[in-house]
Design goal:
This protein has 254 residues and is an alpha/beta fold. It folds into two domains: 1-131, no CATH class; 137-249, Rossmann fold (3-Layer(aba) Sandwich), CATH 3.40.50. It has nine helices and nine strands. The protein has a four-stranded mixed sheet. The chain has a three-stranded parallel sheet with strand order 1-2-3, with no helix packed on it. β1, α1 (10-21) and β2 form a beta-alpha-beta unit. α1 (10-21) packs parallel to α8 and α3 (54-71) crosses α4. It is globular, with a radius of gyration of 18 Å. The chain starts with a strand and ends with a helix. The mean pLDDT is 92.
């Protein structure tokens, strides 16, 4: 698996645990690009990428981490123990494309690469596995490429938000579609939509892996001439506008 960030996101942790538990999948290793593994490294990463928005985002991350332990202590401890047993196969590296990292991955002779929240990867990495690499994108393609596409789908007033499992190529979210699904937005909160979409995405990802293993996977090209803008991380004014829209929706004013 290829990922990034000082700490694995909750859904990435779930993905690793489900891969490890699956009787027909052998998890050879996980390689995550990060400069360190600490809350300080999380702060530095957020500040570099999001600027002033790092303050609320960091607070939300800390609160979410504490909340998970308070509300689901047994599940959190079990997950931590599972990840601890995989610790020798989870590698945090400063440059996922460094020659020594590529050599280490090549030596594992993987059949399939799995991308979950990684930086943009180069062919020198995602082409190493025999069957190439798959990636999960929490957005419908080609309509919603880029970053934070669940947010933008809700911001734009869409009825549904999508998730796509795709064969990775050199473009940005332009690979062949292997599996896709969607969830209803309605008047639901962003967290509720994201949680359901992440759960659906994990199920679809595992289905795609098994279909490739069994030779039954289908690869559907995205529509020709489907160049669409790539969405960016929302700015402060985008978040404020979205909050106002969501508040009005909750009170039935939209």
């Amino acid at each position: 698996m290829f990922g990034s960030g000082p700490m694995l996101n909750p859904d990435a942790k779930q993905f690793l645990c489900r891969l490890e538990a699956h009787p027909q999948i052998e998890l050879l290793g996980a390689f995550c690009q990060a400069e360190g593994q600490s809350w300080r490294a999380v702060w530095k990463d957020l500040w570099r990428r999001r600027g002033i928005l790092a303050f609320p985002l960091f607070g939300a991350a800390v609160a979410s981490s504490i909340g998970q332990y308070l509300t689901h202590p047994r599940a959190e401890v079990e997950q931590r123990n599972k990840l601890a047993r995989m610790a020798d196969r989870i590698h945090f590296v400063t440059d996922i494309h460094a020659p020594e990292v590529l050599q280490q991955i090549s030596a594992l002779a993987p059949d399939l690469g799995l991308i979950y929240g990684s930086p943009i990867l180069k062919p020198s990495l995602f082409d190493i596995p025999t069957n190439g690499s798959l990636g999960i994108h929490h957005g419908k393609v080609p309509e919603y490429r880029g970053n934070k596409t669940t947010f933008w789908a809700m911001y734009n007033g869409e009825d549904v938000a999508g998730v796509t499992i795709q064969k990775i190529n050199a473009g940005l979210d332009t690979g062949q579609i292997v599996k896709e699904g969607e969830v209803t937005i309605g008047r639901r909160s962003q967290r509720a939509v994201v949680n359901e979409l992440e759960a659906l995405g994990l199920d679809l990802y595992l289905q795609a892996i098994m279909e490739i293993k069994e030779g039954t996977a289908t690869f559907r090209p995205q529509p020709e001439g489907s160049k669409r803008k790539a969405y960016r991380n929302p700015k402060l004014n985008d978040l404020l506008h979205f909050w106002v829209k969501q508040t009005r929706k909750q009170f039935g004013r939209e």
